């Protein structure tokens, strides 16, 4: 027979501090209050977030759109730098801007934080970034969960995930069914690496023996600061275009897989977009390539290369779309066209076709980046 323990085992003794969790909630309340919409019912701490959907009764055929995501191994850099108030904006950007791709307006979001140990100030910092991202997107943060997992995660480890819901009129859904030959492809700039490809970036940095606090002159700041630059959120600017009836046919959020693969997902099967490398990727992309001698194909299939979003628009309205985006503080430039595959395809240039299970169109990236960008075809 086993001998009973002389001392009781408590939840705290097992590594879970419920009082720390309560303290974290208190610290995050002000941030969450700023990330609200009039439709939100109730307050922080309920078992479920509630959102008044009565406005949907005025829609002809409302279609709900939903998305869920995380930020991948970017959290490892936040933990290494002990900077936690930006990763939340990354999370919001990854989730809500996927919803905008369909033409839907994101309405509300929830988050989930798993950690090895609840440090109230750290959890509050993460949530402050989530709330800031929701403010930027015009999305309500209606709830969330923080889970302490001692033994599964180290005390200073955590991961974040989130989900959001939006709505769009059925006859206003964007996508391949709207795309036509002759449409113009517009590129919208990223704020840097965003939240994809950090397994490659971290491997390159480790192999080079660099530290995250290393100052890099061409970046104008430390490597860690550059890599933690928050993901740009495009929601408000793109919704202005969506609502303007400006010949917007399709949108693509450039995340995992890079520009070509994500653009191919929103093209009809059999159609081809020819995209020219006319822009200069920010210095961090050339730095990653040089440090790791990363082949261009691999770089472009992993990182956004300075383009965070792509819009496919009618040729006659492209300039007007650019004007509306500029009025919202978002730059854009023409990078390509939806061409006739029989005549537009350039021989000898690789074609990216379909991605992530989507039987979409094809994309060719042609030409070379400007020399000053420091991104080259061969290493």
TrEMBL record:
Family: Belongs to the AIR synthase family.
CDD domains given in the database record: PurM (cd02196)
Keyword Transcription: no
Localization, UniProt: Cytoplasm
Uppermost EC category: ligase
Taxonomic superkingdom: Bacteria
NCBIfam families, per database record: purM (TIGR00878)
GO cellular component: cytosol
Organism listed in the record: Ornithinimicrobium cerasi
Residues spanning the membrane: none
Domain (PurM-like C-terminal) ranges: 181-340
Alphabetical keyword list: ATP-binding, Cytoplasm, Ligase, Nucleotide-binding, Purine biosynthesis
Name of the molecule in the record: Phosphoribosylformylglycinamidine cyclo-ligase
Domain PurM-like N-terminal stretches: 60-168
Biological pathway: Purine metabolism; IMP biosynthesis via de novo pathway; 5-amino-1-(5-phospho-D-ribosyl)imidazole from N(2)-formyl-N(1)-(5-phospho-D-ribosyl)glycinamide: step 2/2
UniProt catalytic activity: 2-formamido-N(1)-(5-O-phospho-beta-D-ribosyl)acetamidine + ATP = 5-amino-1-(5-phospho-beta-D-ribosyl)imidazole + ADP + phosphate + H(+)
Gene behind this protein: purM
InterPro entries: PurM-like_C_dom (IPR010918), PurM-like_C_sf (IPR036676), PurM-like_N (IPR016188), PurM-like_N_sf (IPR036921), PurM_cligase (IPR004733)
Source taxonomy: Bacteria, Bacillati, Actinomycetota, Actinomycetes, Micrococcales
UniProt key word Nucleotidyltransferase: no
GO molecular function per UniProt: ATP binding; phosphoribosylamine-glycine ligase activity; phosphoribosylformylglycinamidine cyclo-ligase activity
GO biological process: 'de novo' IMP biosynthetic process; adenine biosynthetic process
Record-listed E.C. numbers: 6.3.3.1
């Amino acid at each position: 027979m086993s001998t009973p323990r002389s001392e009781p085992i408590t939840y705290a003794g097992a590594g879970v501090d419920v009082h720390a969790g309560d303290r974290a909630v208190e610290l995050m309340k002000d941030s969450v209050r700023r990330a609200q919409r009039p439709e939100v019912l109730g307050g922080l701490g309920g078992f479920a977030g509630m959102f008044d959907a009565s406005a949907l009764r005025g829609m002809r055929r409302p279609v709900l759109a939903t998305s869920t995501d995380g930020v991948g191994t970017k959290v490892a850099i936040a933990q290494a730098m002990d900077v936690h108030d930006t990763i939340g904006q990354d999370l919001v950007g990854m989730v809500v801007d996927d919803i905008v791709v369909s033409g839907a307006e994101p309405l509300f979001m929830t988050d989930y934080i798993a950690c090895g140990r609840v440090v109230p100030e750290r959890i509050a910092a993460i949530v402050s970034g989530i709330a800031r991202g929701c403010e930027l997107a015009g999305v309500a943060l209606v709830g969330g969960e923080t889970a302490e997992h001692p033994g599964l995660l180290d005390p200073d480890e955590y991961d974040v995930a989130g989900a959001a819901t939006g709505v769009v009129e059925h006859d206003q859904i964007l996508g391949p069914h709207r795309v036509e030959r002759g449409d113009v492809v517009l590129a919208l700039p990223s704020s840097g690496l965003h939240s994809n490809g950090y397994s490659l970036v971290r491997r390159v940095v480790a192999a080079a023996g660099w530290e995250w606090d290393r100052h890099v002159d061409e970046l104008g700041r430390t490597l860690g600061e550059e890599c933690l630059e928050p993901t740009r959120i495009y929601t408000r600017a793109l919704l202005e275009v969506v609502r303007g009836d400006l010949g917007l046919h399709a949108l693509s959020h450039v995340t995992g897989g890079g520009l070509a693969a994500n653009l191919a997902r929103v093209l009809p099967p059999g159609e081809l977009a020819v995209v020219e490398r006319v822009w200069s990727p920010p210095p961090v992309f050339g730095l990653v390539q040089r440090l790791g001698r990363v082949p261009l194909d691999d770089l472009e299939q992993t990182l956004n290369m300075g383009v965070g979003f792509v819009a496919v628009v009618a040729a006659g309205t492209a300039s007007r779309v650019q004007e509306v985006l500029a009025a919202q503080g978002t730059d854009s430039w023409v990078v390509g066209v939806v061409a006739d595959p029989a005549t537009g395809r350039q021989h000898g240039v690789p074609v990216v076709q379909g991605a992530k299970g989507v039987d979409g169109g094809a994309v060719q990236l042609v030409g070379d980046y400007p020399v000053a960008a420091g991104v080259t075809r061969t290493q």
